[in-house]
Amino acid sequence: MAMGLAICFLMLIEFVIALAKTPTTLNTTCVGDIGVLLQFGVYQESCPEAEPIIISWVQSAISEEPRMAASLLRLHFHDCFVNGCDASVLLDDTENFVGEKTAPPNLNSLRGFEVIDAIKADLESVCPETVSCADILAIVARDSVLLSGGPGWEVQMGRRDSLTASKAAATNNIPAPNSSVATLVANFQNVGLTQNDMVALSGAHTMGKARCSTFSSRFQSPSNSGGPDVNMDFVQSLQQLCSETADSTTTVAHLDLVTPATFDNQYYVNLLSGEGLLPSDQVLVVQDDRTREIVESYAEDPLLFFEDFKNSMLKMGALGPLTGDSGEIRVNCRAVN
């Protein structure tokens, strides 16, 4: 990859971070009471090329396919919700091991593994056995948001990679697309995140696509997720899209029809007009007064959304990491050493 281009992107990250830092709430060693062993600038001496290499690959992947930004961001989410941010989601199944890739929330759904492979191979050639796959996922998530027009933040690092994975935990812990507000709040609270974190992090759905099978209940029983303000024109357009093919597992729709490849607050504007794609999106404005208030505040103030999203990403990224002598630094993100 072109190192000069990568350095330019790294300078952009550093500039945005300098503007966005909030020292009163974040310090060099912890976010709240979790992840106290994660630190900023872990690779400044051991692998200073790490972040330029990573953002260069992310930029290339997004240039080839804008949807990849959402896919890479989603990998970090699905990793952190299963026993913390330890890159367990990247492990392939073997004859003697069942990983998380075949869990229902992930099967034929998660994408971007090849991008992570390319990044890891590049890093191994420059800094062998130094940068963990879990840290790569956290940095890639930040870069995907930043390169799509969203906020930048300084990523805390020092995670190590797991030696195992849990298909059962992936099945049970990752929020489902048909979840109610109560279920969503419980899913997030189970990993130490608040209701506000849940609504802020749901804003990741301002990018990417979803399969018909994940939102079919929007048109099968529109009142379940639309309430009295259901947008029937939108629901009928979804029904028409999904009825044009017999394969609901491959046909996809934009999560945000207005700015599908841009990280902005349009997701929340869409919810208020009844145009949330997933049932778990639309319920935020029809099932709970508090979540609706948060949605309204983000729809009105994109900078507030950016600030809350950044801080919630830091909290999520600090969930249950393996640090110190725990775990390992994988040479291949798909397999334990």
TrEMBL record:
Q: What is this protein called?
A: Peroxidase
Which reaction equations make up its catalytic activity? 2 a phenolic donor + H2O2 = 2 a phenolic radical donor + 2 H2O
- Essential cofactor(s): Ca(2+); heme b
Write out the catalytic residues in the record. 78
Q: Which residues form a coiled coil?
A: none
Could you list this entry's UniProt keywords, alphabetically sorted. Calcium, Disulfide bond, Glycoprotein, Heme, Hydrogen peroxide, Iron, Metal-binding, Oxidoreductase, Peroxidase, Secreted, Signal
Report residues binding substrate: 175
Recorded GO molecular functions are: heme binding; lactoperoxidase activity; metal ion binding
Coarsely, its chief localization is secreted
Q: Where is this site: Transition state stabilizer?
A: 74
Q: Which GO terms describe its biological process?
A: hydrogen peroxide catabolic process; response to oxidative stress
Tell me if Kinase is a UniProt keyword of this record: no
Q: Where does Ca(2+) 2 bind?
A: 206, 256, 259, 264
Q: Which cysteines are joined by disulfide bonds?
A: 47-127, 80-85, 133-333, 212-242
SUPFAM superfamilies from the UniProt entry: Heme-dependent peroxidases
Q: Which Pfam families match?
A: peroxidase (PF00141)
Q: What class of enzyme is it?
A: oxidoreductase
Quick one: which residues bind Ca(2+) 1?
Answer: 79, 82, 84, 86, 88, 100
Q: How is the cofactor bound?
A: Binds 2 calcium ions per subunit.
- GO annotation, cellular component aspect: extracellular region
What is its biological role?
Removal of H(2)O(2), oxidation of toxic reductants, biosynthesis and degradation of lignin, suberization, auxin catabolism, response to environmental stresses such as wounding, pathogen attack and oxidative stress. These functions might be dependent on each isozyme/isoform in each plant tissue.
- Compartments it resides in: Secreted
Renumbered to this chain, the signal peptide range is 1-18
Boundaries of every Plant heme peroxidase family profile domain copy: 37-337
